[in-house]
Amino acid sequence: MLRRHCITAALIASLMALACLPARAVYPERPIIMIVPFAAGGPADIIARILATTMSKSLGQNVIVDNRAGAGGNLGIGMVARASPDGYTLLLTSTAIAVNPGLFANLPYDPIKDFAPISELVNAPNTLFVRPDSGIMSIADLVARAKAEPDKFNYSSPGVGTKSHLTGELFKLRAGLSIQHVPYRGGGPATQALVAGTVQLGSVALAPVEPLIKSGTVRALAVTGANRWFSLPEIPTMIESGYPGFVSDTFNALFAPAGTPQEILDLLLKQAKAAMASPEAVEAAHRAGYQIIAGDPDQLTRRVVTEIQGVKELVARAGIKPEN
Questions:
Q1: Which tens digits make up the pLDDT trace of 10-36?
Q2: Per-residue pLDDT averaged across 241-269, rounded?
Q3: Alpha-carbon gap, residue 7 to 101, rounded angstroms
Q4: Which fold has domain 125-223?
Q5: Domain 32-124+250-318: what homologous superfamily?
Q6: Chain mean position to CA 205
């Protein structure tokens, strides 16, 4: 009898102790900030708003897109690296997180140590294109013409250090060309320079050029993805054009600060995958010039590590000087 009373008293004491513990908050209990390190209206911002709209509904809390442009994306990326790892500050960035380590001597973050990868959401290739009246019908034609008239050829890109610029430099190295790079402030001006005849070749992300390709205003020679693009099946890849392994695309991916609890990362991954699988997200991504990836954290880690190494090697070979 005494033993039974002792056990009962111990159970009551344990239950009372548990009752006194504070209830654990259910994530998320307040709005989530999703930092985009680029200006509103750009490709990364478009993907962020697709994701934020869907996740706000499914999580029951607002997911607020916060554009923090500056320093080629380094400003906003650095902010998330220093944020509290509690799941309430996220980063949606482009390939800049993996490209900038090769382009800047000093970064306010470590792209591997400071972030917990969640998912590569989408990606898109670049394209190499010419004027229809150029007489150039293929990459082989372009190389032959540029080698025959090296002083007359240059190419435009959206700016130094962009993935389109790096695509152009990779093409030069692989083809053995000495054509000059002419940087512009964005894909639109770079494309218009080609249309106006100021440059002979354009290297720009596919999305803004696709309508001009379809209208016949420009002629695409190749896309730089691993496969032909779903809405331009007649355009060959660089691989098909005789350049094995030539893949140069741009991704947009979701990250959290390193140290974010695993259960929160798991929930965010589940939510991101579900959001990007919705018909509305697929349609909006295609309209913005992207294909859905919705990969897992391990895949994103491999992608970032490979991209960093490849960009650093390309920057060194092309003689691009890193900024301070």
A1: 555 554 554 444 445 699 999 999 999
A2: 97
A3: 62
A4: D-Maltodextrin-Binding Protein; domain 2 (3.40.190)
A5: Bordetella uptake gene, domain 1 (3.40.190.150)
A6: 12
